[in-house]
Write the structure tokens for this entry.
Amino acid sequence: MKVFKFGGASVKDAAGVKNLSSIIHQQHEQLIVVVSAMGKTTNLLETLCNAYFHQDPKTTAIMKELKNFHLDIVNTLFPLNDTIHKHLEELFTSLENILASESSLCYDYEYDRIICFGELISTTIISDYLKMKGIENQFIDIRKFLKTDQNYRNANIDLELSEQLCKDAFDFNTSSVFVTQGFIAGTRTNQTTTLGREGSDYTAALLANLLNAEDVTIWKDVPGVMNADPKEYEKAQVISRMSYKEAIELSHFGAKVIHPKTIKPIQNKQIPLYVRSFLHPESEGTVIQEIDEHLKLPPIYINKENQCLLTLTPRDFSFIAEEKLSHIFAVLAQYKLKLNLMQNSAISFSFCVDCNSAVFNEFLDQLREEFEVRYNQDVKLITIRHYNEEIIREIIGDIPSLVEQRSRTTAQFVLKNVPTDFTIPEK
């Protein structure tokens, strides 16, 4: 049995759905197909959630945009009398019922209730389309079988219960292909939860672990794991083989190809992970697996835009010791903000986080209760793995850095907003 995961870019339009169907049609093995929301649907649903939570009348217009986007895809793929129209109308009605109700005081709870419709809609369309094309499959609402705690927006999996439920649900005696959602899950009391933004990769890895898959394939709009974003670096190249350890490092530093939590579940059972292009499915892409020998890798470049660099100084001029650090990390955890870089001195602590959080100003206000807060918005964090001095001179040049940090294998630079058309040195 294999697990295939298709991200939003791979099913952003009718052509993408047809391409997915073609890839599935060429397979002759038992499959679990994990699918994300279509295109930028999750972003649209986040906007919808914010409008709903703040009682903004824009919810009607956003809901109309959501419907039109999906109906355009459906009208291209299906005849007018197909049952998909009824299935989608049921989902839209369920979402509209939530929007018509009074919001609770818990934003994260409401977020998960609303955001899940992206995956539910996409998998409904794909399951029905595969059936229409003669690929029999079973639709699975993963919220009933992948169980978590109540840590909304970044829920923790109950592995023991989930394994038991998933083994019953994914019964290959009843179907050879299953279609299910990435990113979303459910509590024991059937409340919807999510596994962290871009968490569909993690879902695929969890199902592979729980059901002992032969391998996992993540289908992307790039030819594999590359040493840089090809949209930013013209000479980016595919890395054909990579260890689990290196993949974990890259995801930690912000590489977009793999979700940070993805590797551990498959590493625990030595399940290979393939990253392949859905545009060129015949290409081999990248395989991530246990590699014993030392594997020489090219320099790897990771850019994180829209960062905020904060420097905290205790108001009482005390040292940044364990107690102060513990408080800072507790506030970061409370607002679900991930540190992308940190550096401390005797009386200050500097760190980078993503600037695009809806709760960022509230986060700053809480820090100001105990610290003097200085920050630079709209900065860039550049990470170079397997660097040398020549590489750094080529990439960074004379651009002044706000923070610079190096280890044996990794160099990081926080820069003011600068052009991104750096040239990778020829090697």
In short: Residues 86 and 329 are 47 Å apart (CA to CA). DSSP finds 13 helices and 17 strands in the chain. The first strand starts at residue 2 and ends at 6.
